[in-house]
Amino acid sequence: MSAFVTRRLLHTIPLLIGITLVSFLIMQMAPGDPVDLLTERNATAEERARVRSLYGLDRPLHVQYWIWLTNMVRGDFGHSYVRGRPVLDMILERLPNTVYLNLVVSVLIYSVAIPVGVASALRQYSRFDHVVTSTAFLGQALPNFWFGLLLIYGIALRTDLIPVGGIATYGVTLAEYGFWPVVLDRLRYLILPVIVMGLSAMAGVTRYMRSGMLEVIRQDYVRTARAKGLNERVVIYKHAMRNALLPIVTIIGFELPVLFSGSVIIENIFSWPGLGTLSVNAVFMRDYMVIMAFNVIGATLVILGNFIADILYMIVDPRISYD
User: Fold this and answer.
1) The pLDDT value given to residue 322
2) Which of 157, 171, 288, 300 has the maximum number of C-beta atoms within 10 A of its C-beta?
3) Would you say 245 and 212 are in contact if contact means Cβ atoms under 8 Å apart?
């Protein structure tokens, strides 16, 4: 295990360097000039040249890239051209809200989708199976942004119980209201984003779990376990389900970056103060340093997700060994 982890980490280093290089070059080729964001519209040529020299934009591209890369390795993602603040501080301010939203969605997805997928496979072609299959196809077909707007128009605007956007009611704090009123207030703001983000992902996980269970329960070792007189619950949840989870493990590895990228749209629809709104605002305002930081973070999440999936393979299936 330790040798495998070491190899993967060593392979990750050149991969991340290549990603940073591509991200830097893409931003250099993007239309517009960062100096336009840092100077007034009627700035003179001398003022523009001074700003360009102050931020190192007059240096050769390879020098700019090396400075940005070495600073990033030390945890310095530079300063926002628009707000003038350190990019890392801006990300850390929004990160807890995005993690909070995605953690709730992830727990809901796998705690509901896996049992439903197993039950659907065990009751194949029943009415329950047809309902689950139809709902799963509907969830995968609905665009998240359209479904979110539909919920806002159809539910939130017709009742005061479910807020349209935000993360909490202003002034509702622990000091003023106590623990449970604060918890209930936060849960109200979670309802719509969690439904929109969870439906599509839950549909996919349910379908994978159903097909995996249908394949596993027809295997010889499952029939042998039943012939030995084992309890049906033991046969399903101890012998069959563990092997059926292998496709789900693959999904978990890819869901990590997918959830964060999907939350970009949802956070903007529901005005959720997370990384999604920060990244979209950076794109619209051409805040290059923030955009490059998000490119690197997204690539890192993809690599981390694949690494987690490889580790979970060995946990779920002892036959798999990377040594």
Assistant:
1) 61
2) 288
3) yes
CA–chain centroid gap for 302, Å, is 10
Bridge partners of 86, per DSSP, are 79
Q: How many CB atoms lie within 10 A of CB 119?
A: 17
Reference 293, options 274, 279, 307, 280; nearest CA is: 279
Backbone angles phi, psi at 94, to 5 degrees: -90, -20
Per-residue burial over 6-36, b if 16 or more Cβ lie within 10 Å, else e, is eeeeeeeeeebeebbeebbeebeeeeeebbe
How far apart (Å, rounded) are the C-alpha atoms in residues 35 and 49?
9
Spell out the domains of the chain, with CATH numbers in brackets.
2-73 (no CATH), 95-316 (1.10.3720.10)
Beta carbons of 130 and 120 less than 8 angstroms apart? no
Q: How far apart are CA 89 and CA 297, in angstroms?
A: 14
Give tens-digit pLDDT for 120-161: 999 888 999 999 989 888 888 888 888 888 888 887 667 777
Give the pair of three-digit tokens for residue 164. 């349209």
pTM listed for this prediction: 0.81
Place of tokens 């605007």: 157
- Give per-residue pLDDT as tens, 94-129: 888 888 888 888 888 889 999 999 999 998 889 999
**What number of other Cβ atoms are within 10 A of residue 226's Cβ?**
16
- Residues in contact with 42: Cβ distance below 8 Å, sequence separation at least 6, in sequence order: none
Quick one: tokens of 318? Answer: 């002892």
Contact 279, 291 (CB under 8 A): yes
pLDDT at residue 306 above 70? yes
Q: For the chain, percent helix, then strand, then coil, each to nearest 5?
A: 75, 0, 25
Which of 143, 105, 128 shows the shortest CA–CA distance to 210? Answer: 128
Give the integer Cα–Cα distance in Å for 33 and 288: 10
